[in-house]
Design the sequence.
């Protein structure tokens, strides 16, 4: 029982990271109907910006929460800017072409970031300095949680609530909802659709960057291709929850994280990468629009 | 008699090239030619699903893997014995290896087609991106299974596959997939597929059994992807699960979209261009893949409908009624 609870704690931590990445996918999809394949690579860039900031601050030598916060903020800001550039340079020109050409552009951007990453950072894995000293905290009943896990959970929760606040209670968030409902109607109401789309990319990229830094806290090995698989799985998580649906992305991420950790613990670690997809296919066969997605009747 | 002339001419031409090519060009170029051929088969077969029918499959590498491993296992355990028996019966080498190879390729194709049928079934309920994700999931599941099953070499890869494939077989595969695609485009089935692409609801209202045709498109597409996988396996003599990652599926989609959805000649052209591009860029070494990805983005921005749109390249002296339907998916 205690191992099960322990797995659950690890799974929820890991799932909250997936949820952060999935949020970016789901927001962009909700607004543009675009699968932003480059999103996983923004997550990778977040980890690298974090690495360089931490090295520059020498945060590895005297770990403190303040340094960690600066590293996290720097990564989020840098990736927010990168997100804006990607959207303006690559996605805006293809916005009115077919969705498949937009998808290929996204794939091109993804390959560009990965291979550009290899050029810039080198192909070999780099090690993220330990910016927070590891501490194990017992939760009772043999279940433990590390302070890094607490940070991951706390920061992701805080970011999720911040996002919820932005989307539901600010003008720009309401504009985002309007744009995702209809571009034309939103622009007729005086909303600058271009600006809202760029803003959405920025938000999503910031969340992905935060996920990158948080993961690097726990798994310090980072390399230019680290975003491919988590990116894919986070996207699957977004679909699982009902793509375009923000609470759905969080639920999907958590389901995915817990399922993966349980499979690693009870079946075999080598099947870990397959479980995400098996789960996905099963859920989609039962609920074709995802867990929280509304299935829409087709208009003729 | 006249009907047989065309196929015989094609076979003779392929056999001639098969003898001539290795003498004319160096092994490096020859390998690129073979890989171009395999990629052409993959691109045209994916075009049947994504371009003709407007479905959205991003797991083509999965079908290719099924065909590759299926045919390789056949050759390793059965085909090699057949080849030995045929050679012992003093048949010429080309026949002694050709017959088992043909059997292996067909078997690989059929296995992949069965997988395509399985993956096509969810298209009963799923549309658009959701279906895409199921195909993606299928591709990944296949790869993880291969990586874990010891009988097919797991992560170490599968060595020792008889290297029976030469230019003739790849050329034959290319001709076969193009002939099937062109004939399909002009048949009732093809019209039904185009109708589904252009407007699924209208097609259904006009009595097209949309479910059946969508699954059929998957089966056709997967069959040729399996054949391409078989050719790949018997050309390299070695298989590794890393050859069938999501990236491979992406590569094939890039070919189809770049060539123009629904355009067969476009797929052929784009498959050749995208196979050559990384090789041409070899001199710039480290910048190769960066340039490749940049070119992909620029091409998509400047020619969003693909190189040929949904038109076909035609031989200038040959006039024919227009092939495919209108409008892109």
Sequence:
């Amino acid at each position: 029982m205690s191992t099960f609870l322990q797995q659950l704690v690890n799974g929820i931590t890991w799932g909250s990271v997936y949820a952060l990445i999935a949020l970016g996918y789901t927001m962009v999809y909700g607004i543009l109907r675009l699968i932003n394949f480059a999103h996983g690579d923004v997550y990778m860039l977040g980890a690298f910006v974090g690495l360089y900031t931490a090295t520059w601050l020498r945060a590895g030598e005297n770990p403190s929460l303040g340094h960690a916060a600066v590293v996290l903020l720097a990564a989020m800001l840098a990736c927010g800017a990168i997100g804006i550039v990607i959207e303006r340079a690559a996605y805006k020109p293809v916005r009115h072409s077919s969705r498949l050409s937009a998808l290929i552009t996204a794939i091109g951007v993804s390959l560009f970031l990965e291979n550009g990453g290899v050029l810039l950072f080198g192909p070999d894995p780099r090690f993220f300095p330990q910016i927070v000293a590891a501490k194990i905290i017992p939760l009772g009943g043999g279940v433990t949680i590390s302070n890094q896990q607490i940070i991951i959970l706390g920061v992701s929760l805080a970011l999720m609530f911040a996002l919820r606040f932005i989307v539901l209670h600010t003008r720009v968030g309401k504009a985002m909802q309007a744009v995702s409902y209809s571009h034309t109607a939103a622009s007729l109401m005086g909303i600058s659709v271009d600006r809202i789309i760029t803003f959405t990319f920025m938000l999503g990229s910031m969340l992905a960057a935060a996920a990158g830094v948080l993961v690097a806290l726990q798994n310090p090995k980072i390399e230019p291709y680290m975003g491919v698989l988590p990116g894919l799985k986070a996207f699957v998580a977004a679909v699982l929850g009902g793509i375009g649906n923000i609470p759905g992305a969080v639920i999907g991420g958590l389901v995915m994280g817990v399922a993966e950790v349980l499979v690693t613990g009870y079946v075999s670690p080598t099947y870990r990468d397959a479980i995400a997809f098996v789960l996905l296919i099963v859920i989609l066969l039962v609920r074709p629009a995802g867990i929280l997605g509304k299935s829409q009747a087709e208009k003729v | 008699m006249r009907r047989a002339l065309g196929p015989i001419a094609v076979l003779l031409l392929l056999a001639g090239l098969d003898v001539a090519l290795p003498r004319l060009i160096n092994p490096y170029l020859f390998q690129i030619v073979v890989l171009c051929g395999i990629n052409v088969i993959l691109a045209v077969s994916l075009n049947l699903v994504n371009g003709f029918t407007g479905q959205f499959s991003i797991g083509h590498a999965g079908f290719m893997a099924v065909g590759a491993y299926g045919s390789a296992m056949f050759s390793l355990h059965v085909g090699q014995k057949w080849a030995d028996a045929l050679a012992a019966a003093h048949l010429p080498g080309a026949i002694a290896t050709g017959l088992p190879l043909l059997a292996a390729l067909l078997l690989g194709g059929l296995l992949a087609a069965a997988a395509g049928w399985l993956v096509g079934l969810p298209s009963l309920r799923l549309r658009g991106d959701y279906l895409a994700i199921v195909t993606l999931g299928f591709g990944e599941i296949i790869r993880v299974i291969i990586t874990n099953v010891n009988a097919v070499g797991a992560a170490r890869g599968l060595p020792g596959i008889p290297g029976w494939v030469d230019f003739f077989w790849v050329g034959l595969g290319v001709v076969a997939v193009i002939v099937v695609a062109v004939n399909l485009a002009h048949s009732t089935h093809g019209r039904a597929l185009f109708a589904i692409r252009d407007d699924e609801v209208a097609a259904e209202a006009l009595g097209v059994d949309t479910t059946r045709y969508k699954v059929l498109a998957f089966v056709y597409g997967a069959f040729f992807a399996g054949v391409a996988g078989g050719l790949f396996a018997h050309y390299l003599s070695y298989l590794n699960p890393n050859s069938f990652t999501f990236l491979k599926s992406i590569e094939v989609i890039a070919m189809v979209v770049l060539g123009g959805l629904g355009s067969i000649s476009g797929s052929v052209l784009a498959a050749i261009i995208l196979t050559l591009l990384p090789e041409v860029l070899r001199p710039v070494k480290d910048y190769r893949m960066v340039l490749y990805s940049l070119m992909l983005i620029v091409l998509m921005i400047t020619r969003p409908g693909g190189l040929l749109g949904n038109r076909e390249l035609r031989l200038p002296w040959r006039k024919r009624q227009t092939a495919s339907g209108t409008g892109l998916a």
User: Anything to note?
Assistant: Chain A touches chain B through 47 residues (CB under 8 Å). The two ends of chain A are 53 Å apart (CA to CA). DSSP finds eleven helices and four strands in chain A.
